[in-house]
Amino acid sequence: MPTRSDYLQLHFIILLNSFIPRVFIEISVPSIEIVFLRTLTAVVILGAYIWYKKYYLQVETKHIIHLLLTGVLTAAYWILLSDSAKASNASVTLVGIATTSLWVSIINFIWSNNRPGIFQIITGFLAILGVYLIYNSKFEYDFGFTLAIIAAFAGGLLTVLNAKLAKIHNHYVVAFYQMIGASFGAILFAPIYMVHNQLNLNPTHRDFILIIGLAFVFSVYSYSVFIKVMKRISAFVVALTANLSPIYGILIALLLFHETERMDNSFYMGAIVILIAVFAYPILEYQQHTPHRKRRR
Question: Where are the domains of the chain?
Fold first, then answer.
């Protein structure tokens, strides 16, 4: 049974995650280096913690392969997320990432070979309308917004692939193997990244502090608490609460960085339409699959 503390922790994690795009913007080195240094730091921290707690690291070979491959996908997700933030701003990135839950629904329908229901069609149409409104506004961040939507697809795929293993194994063990995979993923993506980007092998002391913060706060603490509360709070409530991330992020960005984050009215109209679709989908899905209570005689 979830407690008030569980709900508070969930909201705190969602609030924390809304800061991620802004942290990426504040780091001067390219995205590929941020992801490599962040995941490598996370591996060291998680490895030391697992050794201290004496958690069981032995996992079935097929599960290790799965975790390492999803780690590579995690690297792709973070690189796209970082590049989106650097090419636009936190608000644009968060609105694009808000489509993740809709991508999850599409991926699940494709894999289960089910036809989309009326609710999926309506919310999908609303999301497309919101994206259309944003692209047709006086919008200078088309490239960054496109990267955020691609990142949201990668995040949706990652969510679907991780759903089972996160419940089978200890969350720290899952994160440890995925961070190893993400580190290798960053190395694998480096030659592709270098085609259009130049690497900067001289991060500043401030960059190192921010990257260590990303590793500890988001890759270790945030992930572990999120998995922990998911064991007690229903997936419906977690998914619905996670949709608050762009709202938290946009409000914080406007308050702290208003000059670089302020957008025109058409952007906010499109963002509102996307958020309506994102919030409506889990609610409609929940109502559709919840059996009606029998009326009392």
Answer: 4-286
In the chain, the amino acid numbered 194 is M
Residues 124-147: tens digit of each pLDDT: 777 777 777 777 766 678 888 899
Taking alpha carbons only, the member of 103, 62, 67 closest to residue 176 is 67
Given phi > 0 = left and psi -120 to 50 = alpha, else beta, which region is 2? beta
Q: Are 148 and 50 in contact (CB under 8 A)?
A: no
Tokens of 183: 């580190």
This prediction's pTM: 0.81
pLDDT averaged per 10 residues in sequence order, the chain, 297 residues: 79 86 89 91 92 86 90 93 89 82 76 65 74 70 89 86 72 88 93 77 86 86 75 65 75 69 70 76 64 48
Biggest distance spanned by C-alpha atoms of the chain = 74
3-state secondary structure string, the chain?
A: CCCHHHHHHHHHHHHHHCCHHHHHHHCCCCHHHHHHHHHHHHHHHHHHHHHHHCCCCCCCHHHHHHHHHHHHHHHHHHHHHHHHHHHCCHHHHHHHHCCHHHHHHHHHHHHHCCCCCHHHHHHHHHHHHHHHHHHCCCCCCHHHHHHHHHHHHHHHHHHHHHCCHHHHCCHHHHHHHHHHHHHHHHHHHHHHHHHHCCCCCCCCHHHHHHHHHHHHHHHHHHHHHHHHHHCCCCHHHHHHHHCCHHHHHHHHHHHHCHHHHCCCHHHHHHHHHHHHHHHHHHHHHHHHHCCCCCCCC
